[in-house]
Structure formats: C-alpha cells, structure tokens
Write a structure and sequence with these properties.
Elements lengths: L1 H10 L20 H5 L12 H4 L10 E7 L6 H9 L3 H17 L8 E4 L4 H7 L3 H13 L2 E2 L4 E3 L11 H7 L4 E3 L9 E9 L3 H13 L4 E10 L4
Parallel strand pairs: 1-7, 2-3, 2-6, 6-7
Antiparallel strand pairs: 4-5
Helix pairs in contact: 4-5, 5-7
Bound molecules: zinc ion (ZN).
C-alpha cells in the first residue's frame, strides 16, 4: 500500500514537526535527520537526576523522561504542536517509543494504572483534548496498563506557568487538584503522566492530592520532556 501513502504525501504534504521539511516514505512526525539528533535523556536508571528532583518533595518510586526541553530548541516544536496545533498523536507515538525502552528497563514493574495529569474542564474544552491522555494512550498500548483519567480532577485553570518565578510557580499550583474517586486509587501504584517537567511543581501538587486522599498509593512519574540540558 506504499503507493497510497506516496499519493497522500502529494495531496496532503506532511512536514517534520521539528524542522518543517516535508516528510517522505516511512517518516512519521519527524524527519530522519531530526530523529538522529533527538536530544535524548539517558536511558532510565534508578536514582537518576530527574528522579532526584522529587527527593524530599514527593515520595516517588521511579521517574523518567524522554527528551530534553531546552530554551530555543527546535525540538520544542514537537511539544508545541502536540499541545496547541491539534497534533496529539505526536505525543502518543513518542510516548510509545519511550515506553518500549522503559519496559525493557523494568520501569513499569508493579505499576497498576496510568493517570494522565488532568486539565481543568475549561481548558480541555478550549483545546478539545488533553495531550496527556494521548501520552498515556501511547504507554498503555505498549504496556497493556490501564488508564484512569477520571479519578483525579483539576478544578482550577491556573494561569500559565511560563513567566512565573520559581516560588510563584509552586504557590500557583497549590491545591489545584483533587481526587474524585479515592477508592479506585487505593493501594495502587500509579504512573502520573505529563508533557513537560520543569520545576516539578504541578506534578508534586497532583501527587500530594493523591497521597492525601489515598495515603497507601505509590507514585511514579513519566514526562515526555524535561526542561534543562544539565539534568
Ligand atoms: Zn526535521
């Protein structure tokens, strides 16, 4: 069926989500050159620097991320397109690729459910989808772990975090999550999933809400990207 995809490429040219050049053949989302230079975070090991970001802040089992999110990097286009340009399938495919590697490293061992970081109802209806649902879907397809996108809710659409100072960021996200159904989380090992990890404030806030409602849960975290090159 290669002729069909070739024909589709002519009618609807697909472009690389990183550099914008047109894609061909088997290339999906990003071209081969951008794929080769993907700013990969080293493969998961217990106690890695990203995991350590949460030490003393939130009790976590395991934390992993897939690529670096550095200022001015063209690779930020991947996240941007997934979030704001109606291309959530980029997140799903990237997450599936990451999950295949993490699976081999035992990252998902004992994980019972995947909880995508929720958006507020208002934001979800503005955007039409929650990008984290798609990241969760990519992981679920590889691991077979079920997704729970109902038990945790975000009840405040907080202002964007981008221009806030570190301390403000933590204050800004305090108490914005709550647990609608603590019985379904009880005793479970939860994998919280988000798109970009910056300070960890939002994930910590969500994790704390879960632990407050259901103290016997375990929490692991996966994000598609992690800010900073030095982590
Ligand atoms: Zn490219």
């Amino acid at each position: 069926m290669k002729w069909i995809s070739d024909l589709l490429d002519i009618i609807f040219p697909r472009s690389c989500a990183v550099c914008g050049k047109s894609l061909s053949g088997n290339e999906k989302d990003i071209c081969i050159n951008c794929l080769i230079d993907l700013p990969r975070i080293p493969a998961y090991t217990p106690g890695n620097p990203i995991e350590k970001l949460f030490y003393g802040v939130l009790p976590v089992e395991r934390v992993a991320s897939y690529i670096y999110y550095a200022k001015e990097s063209p690779y930020n286009n991947l996240i941007h397109r997934m979030k704001y340009s109606d291309r959530p399938e980029i997140g799903e495919r990237m997450a599936a690729t990451a999950a295949k590697e993490l699976l081999e490293r035992g990252f998902f061992e004992g994980v019972d459910i995947i909880v995508p970081l929720p958006l507020s109802r208002q934001k979800k209806s503005q955007r039409g989808y929650n990008q984290c649902d798609h990241i969760a879907l990519g992981i679920s397809k590889v691991t077979g772990i079920a997704i729970d996108s109902k038990s945790v809710i975000r009840h405040i659409a907080n202002a964007t975090q981008t221009h806030k100072q570190r301390e403000e960021r933590w204050k800004n996200v305090e108490n914005i999550f709550s647990v609608a159904d603590s019985a379904s989380l009880k005793g479970k090992h939860i994998l919280l999933v988000d798109d970009v990890l910056t300070t960890g404030a939002t994930l910590t806030s969500c994790g704390k809400a879960i632990l407050a409602a259901s103290p016997d849960t375990k929490i692991s975290i996966f994000t598609l990207a992690c800010a900073g090159k030095n982590i």
